[in-house]
């Protein structure tokens, strides 16, 4: 048994050695010179698979395998021949196409090589072009965006123009709506410079509208227009109620000042004689008072309606107007009234005619009565001004009358030249028909003078022309005083009249004492001297006993209806004493 096992192992070892020594079929075919096959053929999978199939075939099939292969080769050759015969155009076309494709692929390869070499430069150029055109692209995108939003942008950009057109056409409500729209856009886009620019332009137009509305307060306008302007100013919300009231009063004061200045032009052109001037001043004052009354009354009623009687909001209880608003109206009326009173104080002295003063006082009284309905009765303030004006006017007329009387004697006294021949008293002071026997008052005439009508001059004064003229001048002043005779002036006018009569008496005394008709020479005759003295004594008697008491009584009883307390005043009495010392005989007779 052991020997058998040993033999088997020897047989196997021999077989393995034989297997290692026998070459494989591909090696035999490769080494065979009759079948030169390239070594690469044996590496193909199809060839290896066929060789594996041959080794597995039985011997009978392996013997007929060459015949089968020859038959298959003949069939393939016939089929290939037939195919080449029938499809040779295709093969030719395929060959030409293949050649063309080969050359095209070669050209494409070279073109691709050139393209690959040019791509880096193209990439750099494209990159630089993109960088250079980046800003242009941004602008283009912006332009495209602007074009897409053109309608909306046009609406926004046209806001200032539309607002300006509304302001110029006084469509303030639409202008405020546009301004509010611009403000809302500015709040929505606070960082947008375009919106902020539009907002700035709209604000400039709103300021122009504000100036236009404020200027309307300075123009001639009625209550509805002013009320509308103030309401728009309230809607603009740029002034509080007190500032708005102050702006309203300022504008109306400016308009009133312009209207009064137009009237004041007439006063600035005053020229000519005194009578014409006083009428011009009176006419100016009447027109000024009319314009002032209408203007101030309109402002008071307009201000009261717009600010003090303003309707409360719906559902809110009615509240009294703020004290500041009432104070502004009081300040306005006080200022305007003070301006009127100041003008009256400055102008009334230029109107010495009591008739004109009475007319002005009547006009101002009616004006004060109309203002009393709005709580501005200023009648008590007029009395002192007109009292001063009457005092000035009457005193001036009395003084002018005394100056005219005295000028007759002063002119004679100051006459220079040999050709000048002063008039004697008989020629100057008494009528020619009574020069020889100047009339003297009888006791009956003196009694009638005290009990007769105070406004009828004594008949004896007709015999003394200069004294009659003096009497008419004083009576003219007193007649004018009757139209406007303030009670407060009674004592002052008595004193003024006493001074006037004393001035006239002093002029007559100086004429009698200086005797200017003699020219510094002795009288031509005793008869002439006696005649002159007789005339002077008669004139003095009539002056002190008839003329002076009559004028004083005309003032006391004729104007004021009061009894005469004293016939003449102290100043006249003092001159009478000097006159009696100059003409003692006359003093004894009296």
From TrEMBL:
It is found in: Golgi apparatus membrane. It is a peripheral membrane protein. It comes from the Eukaryota. GO terms for biological process: intra-Golgi vesicle-mediated transport; protein transport. Keywords: Golgi apparatus, Membrane, Protein transport, Transport. The keyword Membrane applies. The keyword Membrane applies. GO terms for cellular component: Golgi membrane; Golgi transport complex. Belongs to the COG8 family. This is Conserved oligomeric Golgi complex subunit 8.
């Amino acid at each position: 048994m052991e020997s058998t096992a040993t033999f088997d192992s020897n047989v196997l070892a021999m077989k393995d050695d034989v297997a290692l020594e026998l070459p494989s079929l591909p090696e035999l075919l490769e080494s065979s010179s009759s079948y030169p096959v390239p070594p690469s053929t044996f590496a193909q999978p199809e060839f290896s698979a066929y060789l594996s199939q041959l080794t597995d075939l039985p011997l009978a099939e392996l013997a007929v395998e060459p015949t089968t292969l020859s038959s298959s080769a003949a069939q393939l050759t016939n089929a290939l021949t037939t195919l080449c015969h029938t499809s040779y155009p295709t093969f030719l076309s395929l060959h030409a196409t293949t050649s063309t494709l080969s050359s095209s692929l070669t050209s494409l390869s070279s073109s691709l090589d050139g393209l690959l070499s040019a791509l880096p430069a193209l990439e750099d150029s494209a990159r630089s072009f993109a960088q250079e055109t980046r800003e242009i692209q941004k602008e283009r995108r912006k332009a495209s965006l602007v074009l897409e939003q053109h309608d909306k942008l046009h609406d926004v950009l046209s806001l200032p123009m539309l607002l300006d057109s509304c302001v110029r056409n006084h469509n303030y409500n639409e202008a405020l709506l546009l301004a509010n729209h611009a403000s809302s856009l500015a709040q929505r886009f606070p960082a947008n410079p375009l919106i902020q620019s539009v907002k700035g332009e709209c604000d400039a137009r709103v300021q122009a509208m504000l100036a236009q509305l404020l200027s309307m307060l300075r123009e001639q306008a009625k209550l509805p227009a002013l009320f509308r302007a103030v309401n728009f100013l309230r809607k603009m919300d740029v002034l509080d109620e007190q500032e708005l009231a102050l702006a309203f009063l300022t504008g109306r004061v400016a308009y009133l000042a312009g209207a009064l200045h137009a009237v004041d032009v007439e006063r600035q052109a005053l020229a000519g004689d005194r009578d014409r001037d006083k009428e011009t001043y009176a006419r100016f004052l009447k027109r000024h008072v009319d314009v002032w009354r209408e203007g101030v009354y309109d402002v008071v009623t307009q201000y009261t309606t717009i600010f003090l009687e303003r309707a409360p909001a719906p559902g809110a209880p009615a509240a009294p107007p703020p004290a500041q608003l009432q104070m502004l109206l009081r300040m306005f009326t006080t200022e305007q009234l003070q301006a009127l009173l100041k003008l009256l104080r400055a102008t009334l002295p230029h109107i010495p005619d009591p008739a004109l003063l009475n007319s002005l006082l009547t006009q101002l009284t009616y004006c004060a009565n109309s203002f009393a309905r709005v709580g501005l009765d200023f009648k008590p303030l007029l009395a002192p001004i007109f009292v001063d004006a009457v005092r000035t006017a009457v005193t001036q007329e009395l003084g002018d009358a005394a100056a005219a009387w005295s000028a007759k004697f002063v002119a004679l006294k100051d006459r220079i030249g040999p050709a000048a021949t002063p008039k004697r008293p008989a020629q100057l002071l008494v009528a020619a028909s009574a020069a020889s026997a100047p009339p003297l008052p009888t006791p009956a005439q003196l009694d009638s003078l005290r009990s007769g009508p105070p406004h009828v001059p004594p008949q004896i004064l007709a015999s003394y022309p200069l004294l009659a003229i003096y009497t008419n001048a004083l009576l003219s002043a007193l007649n004018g005083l009757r139209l406007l005779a303030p009670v407060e002036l009674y004592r002052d006018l008595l004193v003024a009249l006493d001074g006037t009569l004393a001035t006239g008496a002093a002029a007559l005394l100086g004429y009698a004492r200086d005797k200017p008709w003699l020219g510094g020479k002795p009288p031509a005759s005793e008869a002439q001297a006696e005649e002159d003295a007789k005339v002077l004594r008669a004139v003095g008697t009539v002056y002190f006993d008839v003329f002076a008491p009559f004028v004083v009584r005309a003032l006391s009883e004729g104007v004021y209806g009061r009894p005469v307390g004293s016939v003449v005043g102290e100043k006249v009495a003092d001159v009478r004493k000097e006159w009696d010392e100059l003409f003692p005989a006359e003093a004894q007779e009296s």
